[in-house]
Amino acid sequence: MRDQDEPPARTSPRQSWTFSNAVNAEIRRAAATGIYDIRGGGSKRQLPHFDDLLFLGASISRYPLEGYREKCATDVWLGTRFAKKPVHLEIPVTIAGMSFGALSGPAKEALGRGATAAGTSTTTGDGGMTEEERGHSRTLVYQYLPSRYGMNP
């Protein structure tokens, strides 16, 4: 039994294989104060705006005369040289990986439905694959990486 005048025993934090001492110190500071620097859905950086985009007309070899009569092929095949089953996308745009921790199940389902309707793929993110996402995504890229929520090498 501890004497009332004796300060509580303190254990030193263990060294983490995943996080540096500086990151661990930041986590402890945020837990103690309740003040976090980064929250989901935001960024401290100044993000580019659509007005910052510049389209170079010289890169287009020929303008279509009429969009409804001229066929413009936008489909893309990925892995035609080495893959046993190449991936076919109807548009050259994919949905980037966002983890289940950052997005809810209904949001992952909506992205899967939208990607399937648009003819493209969606990516799981490093939080694993959800049933909603797998059930509504025709082409789903599974993100597998060593990270905080992925596998541990």
Structure description:
With 153 residues, the chain is of the alpha+beta class. The chain has a domain at 69-153. Helices cover 22% and strands 8% of the residues. The chain is built from three helices and four strands, in the order αββαβαβ. It has helices at residues 21-33, 105-118, 131-136; strands at 76-78, 87-89, 121-123, 139-141. The strands form two sheets. It has a two-stranded antiparallel ribbon with strand order 1-2. The chain has a two-stranded parallel sheet with strand order 3-4. Strand 3 (121-123), helix 3 and strand 4 form a beta-alpha-beta unit.
**Main β-sheet description:** 2 strands, antiparallel
Alpha plus pi helix count? 3
Cα-atom Rg, whole angstroms?
Answer: 24 Å
Give the overall shape, derived from the CA principal axes: elongated
Q: Give the strand content.
A: 5-15%
Structural class: alpha+beta
* Helical amount: 10-25%
Query: Oligomeric form of this entry?
Result: single chain
Number of strands: 4
Sheet with the most strands: spatial strand order: 1-2
List low-confidence stretches.
Answer: none
